[in-house]
Amino acid sequence: MPDADVDAPPFSEPDPPTIVVGAPDRILLKGTVVTPEMQFVGEVLVEADKITCVAADAACEAMPGAPGATVIDTKGVIAPGLIDTHNHILFDIFDDSDWHPAQLYGDHDQWPTEPRYNAMLDIKQCLVNDSQGKPAWCAMTPYGTSAGSLRCETDKFGELKGLVAGTTSIVGLPGTSAGCFGSLARSIDVAQNELGFDNVQTSALYPPSDPNGVCANYASGKTTAFLLHAGEGVDAAAAAEFDKLGTMTTTPNCLYAPQTAITHGVAFTPAQFATMATNGMKLIWSPQSNVSLYGTTADIPSALAAGVSISLAPDWSMGGSQNLLDELRFADGWDNAHWSDRLAPQDLVAMVTRHGAQALALDTTLGSLEVGKLADIAVFTGTAAAPYDAIVAAKPASVRLVMVGGVVLYGDRVLQAAGPQAPGCETIDICGAPKFLCVAQASTANKLDQTYAQITSALNDALTLSDSLTPDDGFNFAPLAPLVTCN
Predict the structure, then answer these.
(1) Can you tell me the distance from the alpha carbon of 334 to that of 432, in angstroms, rounded to the nearest whole number?
(2) Which terminus of the chain is more exposed, N or C, with fewer CB under 10 A?
(3) Using CB atoms within 10 A of its CB, is residue 123 exposed (0-12), middle (13-18) or buried (19+)?
(4) What pLDDT does residue 262 have?
(5) Domains of the chain (ranges, CATH numbers)
(6) Strand locations in 307-360, DSSP E?
(7) pLDDT band at residue 11 using 50, 70 and 90 as cut-offs
(8) Burial of 15 from C-beta contacts in 10 A (0-12 / 13-18 / 19+)
């Protein structure tokens, strides 16, 4: 019998994909198609950044754009790219080894007093040159200036953590935006989302700083989706937050509107979910983070019974999930243990595709495989027998291909020829699976030419230096959290 610590055998695909290389801007995908409402064996044709055909069997091959296209027989499940509606992306350089709640709390104002959390927050504030809250020791580093900031590297690392898990759009709550954002997964709540418009407004704090301004933006059409935290906790303070939303504005109840999506809602009652449904409000559910901080999560069966549209998101990587696939599995496990399997795999997949797009008011552009929509697509190992189960059970090693706006950025190494040829892609091992990752762009502006190796090297060096300048706090945050945790 082999020793327990020998290397695991190489990852092997049960039925590996194949590729016939043709035109780089036209790609024909074959496999089991999940739209996500329907499933069928068929094809998806992508031309430039748009989907131009979704059809059963080989019907897309008759389309004018199909002859000469690159053809990928995925032998897997072709799905809309996953949409992460809530992720504090600049914290994704950390994980549970850096900070995990020391106890359960009553609401969101309590746990930020933990010393280790504050030490971690200081490092994040310094590395990304946040406008407020930089620690004094940051002046001894190059990071607390516009020229030396690692905001680009930090954001791109978070985008990559999502991308390798099939996530093509992320609400990252980065605060100050930058030209380097959105070069990988879409940073959906900033101008660099490659949509040509940004009508998503966010608030990472409760109460939001300018609720009357939000209502004015609703009226003018400037804001079509407003994502805010509320009901985060289990005590009376958290329970009161929903009703206060109706009284904090000059025009009462103007935030009770279809544009409003509430993140967390742990303390909400069935009656409050009914009010949300009546007003077309959405819920963003982050169960793993909720359970880590408060011991429970939102009453999803009551929200569903009321008719609330629910999306799923990991929140962040300390006590939350490393990526949206991890959050899917946690949500499925919690549902099975506490709600008698109320959520079918198809329900969960809809939460990270169609419902995510609805929360962002982008369901005419993203969230499903339909002609005319942007070609944000993820392919997973799986078969027609149980495609939704395959997505819920997936891990980054079993993500076969990811494209954003028709550009292939990640996948099985045998499909690397589908990625950009210039400046080229990097090879990477993901839990024993040989993959390729296309990070660098040809442009030298806004650090867009950085490779994955350069990004991770810069972040590791910064964490090591920060630890050396804070020896008295007793905490160390180097090395950089892994891109993927294998388990």
Answers:
(1) 28
(2) N
(3) buried
(4) 98
(5) 18-80+369-422 (2.30.40.10), 84-359 (3.20.20.140)
(6) 309-312
(7) low
(8) exposed
Predicted confidence (pLDDT) per residue in 36-48, tens digit: 999 999 999 999 9
**What pLDDT, on a 0 to 100 scale, did the predictor assign at position 14?**
76
Q: What is the pLDDT of residues 452-463, one digit of tens each?
A: 999 999 999 999
Name every residue whose Cβ is closer than 8 Å to that of residue 319 and which is 6 or more positions away in sequence: 96, 99, 100, 101, 288, 289, 292, 293
Return all residues near 103 (Cβ < 8 A) that are at least 6 apart.
none
Task: Spell out where 171-219 has E strands.
Answer: 186-187, 200-203
Residue 243 CA from chain centroid, whole number: 29
> Exposed, middle or buried by CB within 10 Å (0-12, 13-18, 19+), for 259?
buried
Spatial separation of the C-alpha atoms in residues 467 and 141, rounded to whole Å = 11
Mean pLDDT of all residues belonging to the chain: 96
The CA distances from residue 102 to 99, 128, 472, in Å, are 9, 26, 20
pLDDT of residue 5: 35
3-state secondary structure of 473: helix
Give CA torsion, residues 396, 398, 399, 400, to 10 deg.
Answer: 140
Distance, in Å, from the CA atom of 320 to the CA atom of 322, rounded to the nearest integer, reads 7
- Model confidence band, residue 1 (pLDDT cutoffs 50, 70, 90): very low
Closest listed residue to residue 241, CA positions, set 258, 223, 251, 229: 229
With a cut of 90, say whether residue 8 has pLDDT above it: no
Q: Is the pLDDT of residue 3 over 90?
A: no
- Rounded Cα distance between 379 and 296, Å, is 32
Cα 36 to Cα 9: distance, rounded to the nearest angstrom: 34
Can you state the angle between helices 151-163 and 115-127, rounded to 10 degrees?
110
Look at residue 388 in the predicted model and tell me its pLDDT.
98
**Phi, psi of 469, deg, nearest 5:** -90, -5
Q: How far apart are CA 352 and CA 295, in angstroms?
A: 23
For residue 12, name the pLDDT band (cuts at 50, 70, 90): low
The token duo for 85 is 């509606």
Which residues are registered as beta bridge partners of 42? 31, 56
Share of the chain above pLDDT 90, in %: 95
